[in-house]
Specification:
The chain is α+β, with helices and mostly antiparallel strands and 198 residues long. It contains 5 helices and 7 strands; from the N terminus they run H-E-E-E-H-H-H-E-E-E-E-H. 47% of the residues lie in helices and 31% in strands. The mean pLDDT is 86.
Length: 198
Amino acid sequence: MRKIDFDEKIANLERDSKWHKKLNIIFAVIIFILVVLDWASFNYERLVIVPASNPEYSYWVKNGEASNEYLESLSRDLLNLSLNVSPETVKKQYEAFLKFVTPSLRSYIIDNLKKSAENIIENDISQSFYIDQMKIVPSKQIVYVSGFLKTYVNNQQVTNVQQIYKIKFKAEDLTVKVEQYRLLDPQHDSVELKGVGI
């Protein structure tokens, strides 16, 4: 091989090597930008839900937060499942209710729900909850619901009691679960209730 050809090949290889290094740096920067954009889009990604029964309404869920409309709708569904029960429906409704709660809350309330279901079936108890007022605290993903719980034994109304429930939601990975579900005491929780205006 002649020295001139060899020098030309070396020069071509060095030039190609410089271009490859520049291209590798450009590709590394592009990959880095894509990773950052992907991470950022996950934090801002949101799932929009359009209910079939009311297509004029839409709800959204994003990582760590759900819309007020979704929290209200979900609260109504949860109260319906847990409070509007009869001996014929209580077991299925409680099973459905448990699908909406976090695993930590589930382990805490499952025994109470089983005892409540047994009591409802054995004593032929029916309940209906009528919502009076609902307050949503979006920053904390908490819904306060006040209403009247009517209880019937053998189809005879025995009580009509005003109750206030606190439902705290946890939005994570574009799903919403109940983190806290509690009946509030107007005397013991008066400061909290006054703070939200109930």
